Amino acid sequence: MAMAANQAQFTIQVATIETPLKVYGFEGYEGISRNYTMAVTIVCDKADLELENWLQLPVCLILETNNPQQEAKRYIHGMVYSIEQLSLDPTNPLDRHCRYKLTITPKIERLKHRRNHRIFQQKSVPEIIEQILVDAGIFSNEYQFKFSSEHKAREYCVQYGESDLAFIQRLMSEEGIHYHFQHSEHSHLMVIADGQDGFLQLPALPYAQHNGMTKERDIISQFQVKQQVSTGKVTLRDYHFKKPEFKPQGQKQTNIVTEQPLECYQFPGQFKTEAVAKRRASIGLEQHRTEHTLITGSSDAPQMTSGYYQPLIQHPNQAWNDDWLVIGVIHKGKQPQVLEEFADGAATYQAEFTCTPWDVPFRSLTQPKPLIHGEQTAFVTGPEGEEIYCDEFGRVKVQFHWDREGQADEKTSCWLRTSQGWAGNGYGQFILPRIGHEVIVSFMNGDPDKPVITGAVYNAKNRVPYELPANKTRSTFKTSSSMGGDNFNELSFEDKKQSEQIALHAAKNLDVQIQHNRTQEIHQQDHLTVHGSRYQEVKRDSHSTVNGTQFETIKGDDHQQVGKERHTEVGSKLLSEVGSEIHVKAGQKIVIEAGNEITVTAGGSLLKVDPSGVTLLGPMVNINSGGCAGNGSGIALLSPELPFVSSPSTSGKGLTVAPEKLNKKRLEKMDVFIPSNQIKAIRTAANKKSALCEVCIADRERDQA
């Protein structure tokens, strides 16, 4: 655009600055989903401007236009991002003008200097963007949302070391959202949209080539259309552990048959449902095809603004006389006449622009997400008053060391899966990290949004189970009773030479279940101490061999019940001493045999049978002359109580089962020593095949106490 020699076509206003300023020249770029930058060279008579005072001041560059359908002025509003005092012109030592170069950017340019590590939960991308803008001091009248589709809340979204600007730009690119700016003399508005209806329209410009003559209005002097091969198909696939056999997939392809084989296949696709997969695939294809048809051109019209439709008229190719979406503009302007007698040319302005067809959805390419390489540690968290907090999948929540907003509660993070040594369908290894444990966290494919626990470490607060290095040969698996931690279960291994040991400690019950054989071999001694009662049942035969001497002490009564015959063989002598009475009763007969002698003594009387005959001696011997048989105490046999055993279906849960079969006669025999409430409970448990007999357990524990 050629301009009058002495007329200023570019002016500038800086808030609170009263020093007269003149624009010598400017150059800058603006684009959709990019912050504009305009470098403006100004001149003034002051050589001592306080540069620090200029930073972040509102500023407006004003360009005069020459379009009867357009306002007379084009505004580029922003803030002073930087200011630089330039050297004097060495070729003109008499030049009195002081030169400065200031850079104009939108207010959100400040966001690139705000870098953070933070977690957003259950928030949509628009909600996250708004929170970022508000936190950065961007007021609600400085941005505007124009959405044509719903943006669902993200369960978990991490800003990991990104600047606020890079973070919201990445989120917008992932959601198919773009932004541009609308300018006025005193403000600039950030318009955030997800469709073509977020763009406004500029007045039409005619196409005309430069012919060296003065033009009556702004024109488009160059207009080139280029088409290029682009990706024609996008396929996304992902995996979610809640549906391990389901392979969700999203796919979208162009209707240009020759480009359909040009597929972009991406894994992971960052989705959980088919609906989201299809939407992301559609956005992905639109990203690749945004520049399938690309227009470049030149104009002397300052009205050229990114994020607007620019109608073209009077082009010889009628198909091109249409609306075109301006996606980028380079502005260049210069007016040397402000140097007055030192002017070195006429004022000029040119805009080099890039456009796409109006009906091609604009999508900026997805910005790369920062990856977390390696592992981190974090603390397991949960509600106050709890020691263990998890969900149905054994996932826990953590607080990362970099998270300064988390409150170390049940809301600090998403649920994290915990790595196990073995994981099958209802079997495997399972150890659940507890609140306060320091765990090692890895990230699936390096994605900060997909943490997983892969291990645990001790620290100065959570110390190792045994003091080190004194116990360096001891390995252990030791738990802590919850709640309170005043007891533990443990399986430990001592590997010190000549002190090797395997130790097992159960804080309460130890249930061992063997579905076939158990074989034990002890080369030295076997010690067993039962502080309460011991119960044992052998459902078939019991074999016991003692190759040495057997010692047995029973400090109470000894009750033995033999259902059939009892055979006892003593190689040498059978010696018994009874303090009060021996009472032997047989249903039919008692036979006592001795190879040499039988002697019965009582009081002063004697009965002796030996090979020499029968000797009967006493103060008086009565034969068929009165007397009667003595009476014994009679038997009062008590049957043993039956043991409780672990149920196969509840092994490891500390539960017990009633005997498999309890017939009526056996229960009647048990009535002599089992309380009535326990008999009733055993009958009920046996008949119902119940897995728990609480009354029996209570009675037994009371008896053992």
User: CATH superfamily assignment of the domain at 371-463?
Assistant: Gp5 N-terminal domain
Which class of the domain at 371-463 in CATH terms? Mainly Beta
Give the termini separation: 105 Å
**Share in β-strands:** 25-35%
Oligomer: single chain
**Which fold does the CATH topology of the domain at 371-463 refer to?**
OB fold (Dihydrolipoamide Acetyltransferase, E2P)
Specify the helix fraction band: under 10%
Q: Which overall shape is indicated by the principal axes computed on the Cα atoms?
A: rod-shaped
Summarize the biggest pleated sheet. Answer: 13 strands, mixed
CATH architecture of the domain at 371-463: Beta Barrel
Number of helices: 6
Total E-strand runs = 32
Structural class: mainly beta
Integer-rounded radius of gyration: 48 Å
Average pLDDT taken over every residue: 87
Sequence stretches where pLDDT stays below 50 over 5 or more residues: 652-658, 669-673
InterPro entries: Gp5/Vgr_OB, Gp5_Vgr_C, T6SS_RhsGE_Vgr_subset, T6SS_Vgr_RhsGE, T6SS_VgrG/RHS, Vgr_OB-fold_dom_sf
Organism: Vibrio genomosp. F6 str. FF-238
Domain Gp5/Type VI secretion system Vgr C-terminal trimerisation: 475-583
Domain Gp5/Type VI secretion system Vgr protein OB-fold: 393-458
Question: What topology emerges from the helices and strands here?
Answer:
Blueprint: E1 10-14, E2 22-31, E3 34-44, E4 58-64, E5 73-85, E6 98-105, E7 115-123, H1 125-135, E8 143-146, E9 154-163, H2 164-175, E10 178-183, E11 188-193, E12 200-201, E13 205-206, E14 220-227, E15 233-237, E16 249-253, E17 263-266, H3 274-289, E18 293-299, E19 308-313, E20 323-334, E21 348-357, E22 376-381, E23 397-400, E24 417-418, E25 438-443, E26 451-457, E27 474-478, E28 490-494, E29 501-505, E30 598-602, E31 605-610, E32 613-617, H4 664-670, H5 676-688, H6 694-704
Helix pairs in contact: 1-2, 5-6
Protein name: Type VI secretion protein VgrG
Pfam families: Gp5_trimer_C, Phage_base_V, Phage_GPD
Subcellular location: Secreted
